[in-house]
Amino acid sequence: MDIVHDGPRLVLTGEFDVRSTMDVRAAIHERLRGCDEDLIVDLTGVTAVDVIALRVLAAATVAAEREGRHLTLRGAGPAVRRMLHLSRLIRVVELERAVATA
Protein backbone atom coordinates (compact mmCIF):
# COMPACT_ATOMS: atom_id res chain seq x y z
CA MET A 1 0.00 0.00 0.00
CA ASP A 2 1.38 3.37 -1.03
CA ILE A 3 0.09 6.50 0.69
CA VAL A 4 0.75 9.89 -0.88
CA HIS A 5 -0.10 13.16 0.89
CA ASP A 6 -1.38 15.79 -1.51
CA GLY A 7 -2.66 18.72 0.55
CA PRO A 8 -6.01 17.75 2.07
CA ARG A 9 -6.02 14.58 -0.03
CA LEU A 10 -4.58 11.16 0.72
CA VAL A 11 -4.03 9.00 -2.34
CA LEU A 12 -4.01 5.26 -1.63
CA THR A 13 -2.61 2.80 -4.16
CA GLY A 14 -2.41 -0.99 -3.98
CA GLU A 15 -4.06 -3.52 -1.69
CA PHE A 16 -5.84 -1.93 1.24
CA ASP A 17 -6.23 -4.73 3.74
CA VAL A 18 -5.49 -5.65 7.33
CA ARG A 19 -1.72 -5.38 6.69
CA SER A 20 -1.93 -1.71 5.71
CA THR A 21 -4.63 -0.45 8.07
CA MET A 22 -2.26 0.88 10.72
CA ASP A 23 -0.35 2.97 8.17
CA VAL A 24 -3.54 4.34 6.62
CA ARG A 25 -5.06 5.07 10.05
CA ALA A 26 -1.92 6.95 11.10
CA ALA A 27 -1.85 8.96 7.84
CA ILE A 28 -5.51 9.93 8.17
CA HIS A 29 -5.22 11.00 11.79
CA GLU A 30 -2.00 12.91 11.07
CA ARG A 31 -3.80 14.76 8.27
CA LEU A 32 -6.80 15.50 10.51
CA ARG A 33 -4.52 16.92 13.23
CA GLY A 34 -2.34 18.92 10.88
CA CYS A 35 -4.94 20.44 8.58
CA ASP A 36 -8.14 22.40 9.15
CA GLU A 37 -9.62 21.39 5.80
CA ASP A 38 -11.94 18.54 4.97
CA LEU A 39 -10.11 15.37 3.96
CA ILE A 40 -10.44 13.39 0.74
CA VAL A 41 -9.22 9.80 0.64
CA ASP A 42 -8.65 8.87 -2.99
CA LEU A 43 -9.20 5.15 -3.57
CA THR A 44 -8.87 5.23 -7.36
CA GLY A 45 -5.67 3.18 -7.27
CA VAL A 46 -6.86 0.64 -4.69
CA THR A 47 -6.84 -2.83 -6.26
CA ALA A 48 -8.31 -4.79 -3.33
CA VAL A 49 -10.00 -3.97 -0.04
CA ASP A 50 -11.27 -5.90 2.96
CA VAL A 51 -13.80 -5.13 5.68
CA ILE A 52 -11.13 -4.31 8.27
CA ALA A 53 -9.77 -1.59 5.98
CA LEU A 54 -13.25 -0.19 5.41
CA ARG A 55 -13.83 -0.06 9.16
CA VAL A 56 -10.73 2.16 9.42
CA LEU A 57 -12.31 4.57 6.92
CA ALA A 58 -15.64 4.49 8.77
CA ALA A 59 -13.95 5.23 12.11
CA ALA A 60 -11.95 8.05 10.52
CA THR A 61 -15.18 9.50 9.10
CA VAL A 62 -16.68 9.60 12.59
CA ALA A 63 -13.49 11.15 14.02
CA ALA A 64 -13.51 13.86 11.34
CA GLU A 65 -17.16 14.66 12.04
CA ARG A 66 -16.39 15.03 15.75
CA GLU A 67 -13.91 17.73 14.77
CA GLY A 68 -16.47 19.46 12.54
CA ARG A 69 -14.97 18.27 9.25
CA HIS A 70 -15.80 15.79 6.54
CA LEU A 71 -13.92 12.80 5.20
CA THR A 72 -14.95 11.93 1.66
CA LEU A 73 -14.00 8.84 -0.32
CA ARG A 74 -13.09 9.53 -3.95
CA GLY A 75 -12.74 7.00 -6.73
CA ALA A 76 -14.37 4.07 -4.95
CA GLY A 77 -14.62 1.41 -7.62
CA PRO A 78 -17.27 -1.30 -7.88
CA ALA A 79 -15.42 -3.74 -5.57
CA VAL A 80 -15.05 -1.10 -2.85
CA ARG A 81 -18.68 -0.03 -3.20
CA ARG A 82 -19.85 -3.64 -3.05
CA MET A 83 -17.88 -4.24 0.17
CA LEU A 84 -19.28 -1.02 1.66
CA HIS A 85 -22.81 -2.22 0.94
CA LEU A 86 -22.24 -5.78 2.16
CA SER A 87 -20.67 -4.53 5.41
CA ARG A 88 -23.34 -1.81 5.76
CA LEU A 89 -20.55 0.73 6.25
CA ILE A 90 -22.04 2.67 3.34
CA ARG A 91 -24.27 4.22 6.01
CA VAL A 92 -21.25 5.75 7.73
CA VAL A 93 -18.90 6.90 4.98
CA GLU A 94 -19.40 9.64 2.44
CA LEU A 95 -18.71 8.84 -1.20
CA GLU A 96 -17.88 11.62 -3.62
CA ARG A 97 -20.45 11.86 -6.37
CA ALA A 98 -19.10 11.33 -9.85
CA VAL A 99 -19.23 14.39 -12.06
CA ALA A 100 -21.41 13.80 -15.10
CA THR A 101 -19.73 14.45 -18.42
CA ALA A 102 -21.53 15.41 -21.62
From TrEMBL:
Signal peptide: none annotated. It comes from the Bacteria. Gene3D superfamilies: STAS domain (3.30.750.24). Residues 10-102 form the STAS domain. Pfam families: STAS_2. InterPro entries: MlaB-like_STAS (IPR058548), MlaB_ABC_Transporter (IPR052746), STAS_dom (IPR002645), STAS_dom_sf (IPR036513). This is Anti-sigma factor antagonist. It comes from Nocardioides guangzhouensis. The lineage of its organism: Bacteria, Bacillati, Actinomycetota, Actinomycetes, Propionibacteriales.
